[in-house]
Amino acid sequence: MIDLLQTLDPSLDLHRVSADPGIAWSGSASVAIDAPPDDAADNSPDATWSTDAVRTGRCGAVTPRVVRLPDATYRMYYTQILPRAGHPEGALDYGNATTRILSARSEDGWTWTPEPGVRLSAAEGGAGSFRVVVTDVVPVTDGRLRMYYECAPGPQSEPSTIRSAVSEDGMTWTVEQGDRFGGSESNFASARVTFLDDGRLRLYLLERGTGIISAISEDGSAFGREPGVRIDQSGPYDGTVAFAPEVVILPSGERAMYYAGYASASRAFILHATSPDGLTWHKADDPVLTPGGRWDGAKCSEMCLFPLREGIDEYRYGMAYEACDGSARDERGVWRILNAQPAS
After folding, report:
1. 95 contacts 129 by C-beta, under 8 angstroms
2. Which of 87, 109, 175, 276 is 20 to 30 A off residue 157, Cα-Cα?
3. Do 306 and 109 meet the contact criterion of CB atoms below 8 Å apart?
4. DSSP 65-114
């Protein structure tokens, strides 16, 4: 959670919450960002389409990252999945799809309007015609923003790394040279930053086949891996993969992590864990969100939390998450970004 209304400084305060967001949430409340229809005549970044348009899963919208801006409005960075030349199945064959990073604005964190222009294309991000995937956007000490993203220059069987870009205004991004983390034969993704009390940064991220690991940096430009695994892939809801950690600091000082877990290739949940120090985590017994609605029939996956308007909104925090409706073969389908709210 990045709240620039609370502070512009790259510090632990960006992640603090005034109350525990809890583990009782209601998903599939509404569509925040929809996937382009199969026959979309206009696929410009700020295009919108009818919810009832025909979608088979070729296109998708995933990986929401919401930043509350200093003016109390919201910007969401997200990844749009499209068919790549010669691979018409698009998101249904994700390893061979292409992506681009887009953004949307909101006054209330609920209704989103896509913004013109591409924040980062696959080619600009070093992935050629394959995939860049936004993972986090945080402030840096000179007043700019830094976007961390997954750079996947080939199918998922090939290595991917975490890279970054910087921006003065959150709209125009300049890619920084090299990898922030990676460079091995592993596949890394879904990296989220937490600022520490001593000024360092901790990166939580997925290593495919392992689970959620962490790495440390003095300045956010180069991260060194920490020993151990933060969240392993051993539970009933995350036995296939555990990834996309969102860490907040509770009023008690304890850390709470919301993360995505796949129980199988066709079933994903949003899960919860707590930690006294950010290193040793204890998983909750039950999911935060379970698939089963109209738009999240198969998978509730990568999510983000953000504070709502105090004194105006009924709830203190909102959630956006990627979801798959399971409408295609093997319970694949259309990926959309949905809104969730605390369960009443």
Report:
1. no
2. 175
3. yes
4. EEEE-TTS-EEEEEEEEEPBTTBTTGGGGGGG-EEEEEEEEESSSSS-EE
Q: Say which residues have a Cβ less than 8 Å from residue 227's Cβ, sequence separation at least 6.
A: none
Sign of CA dihedral 108, 113, 114, 115: negative
Element of type H or E holding 188: strand 188-195
Separation of first and last alpha carbons in the chain:
22
Give the separation between CA 58 and CA 38, rounded to whole angstroms: 7
Is 1.20.1090.10 the CATH classification of the domain at 2-342?
A: no
pTM of the model: 0.96
- Tokens, residue 211: 């689970």
Does residue 291 contact residue 323 with C-beta atoms inside 8 Å?
Answer: yes
Cβ–Cβ under 8 Å, residues 140 and 146: yes
Mean pLDDT over the full length of the chain: 95
Alpha-carbon dihedral sign for residues 214, 218, 220, 223: negative
Strand 174-175 relative to strand 188-195, pairing: unpaired
What residues contact residue 143 under an 8 Å CB cut-off, 6+ apart? 8, 168
Contact 342, 21 (CB under 8 A): yes
| Two tokens, residue 73 | 């409005």
- For residue 314, is pLDDT > 80? no
Rounded to the nearest 10°, the torsion over CA 30, 34, 38, 39 is: 100
pLDDT tens digits for range 20-47: 999 999 887 799 999 999 988 678 999 9
What's the rounded Cα separation, in Å, for the pair 289 and 220? 31
Dihedral, 338, 109, 29, 34 alpha carbons, nearest 10: -30
Look at residue 329 and give its three-state secondary structure. Answer: helix
